[in-house]
Amino acid sequence: MSRAEDPTPFPTGWPKARYRAARRAMKALRLADHLLRHGLAYTPEDATDELVRTAAEQTGHRQPSETTCSLVRAVLTLLLSPTVTSSPVEDDASKRVIRLVVTVDDRPTA
Questions:
Q1: How far apart are CA 65 and CA 46, in angstroms?
Q2: DSSP 3-state assignment of 87?
Q3: DSSP track, 19-83
Q4: Would you give the distance in Å from CA 36 to the centre of its chain?
Q5: What pLDDT, in 10s, does the model give residues 13-50?
Q6: What angle do CA 82, 107, 79 make, to 5 degrees?
Q7: Does pTM top 0.90 for this prediction?
């Protein structure tokens, strides 16, 4: 099993909701990656719940919930959105930060 399939445990002391949200976000990233790499979805609209659940079955994940399916579409939107750069001098990829906030029960967890 590769490191991506068996990630290291999260630090202790987090609330349970934060663990669940982080695991859900990682699952959504893996499923979005699978959809893109296998040419199953090129836009968020292509990633229907049925297609995401089929991808989960192909990759050996449990059936994702509606929330996870919508998070997969959000990840695809984030990954496929065009990047805006102000000038070539300031276009340093190492300075870019992407923050994804997962909301559980109407409360942000990150």
A1: 17
A2: coil
A3: HHHHHHHHHHHHHHHHHHHTTS-SSGGG--HHHHHHHHHHHTPPPPPHHHHHHHHHHHHHHHSPP
A4: 12
A5: 888 888 888 899 999 999 999 999 999 988 899 999 99
A6: 15
A7: no
Among 26, 51, 44, 37, residue whose Cα is nearest residue 81:
44
The number of beta carbons lying within 10 Å of the beta carbon of residue 65 is: 12
For residue range 55-93, what is the model confidence (pLDDT) as tens digits?
A: 999 999 999 999 999 999 999 998 887 765 555 555 555
Say if strands 103-104 and 107-108 run parallel, antiparallel, or are unpaired. Answer: antiparallel
- Tokens for 24? 């859900």
Partners of 107 in beta bridges = 104
| Contact status, residue 43 vs residue 76, Cβ threshold 8 Å | yes
Tokens at 82, concatenated: 């065009």
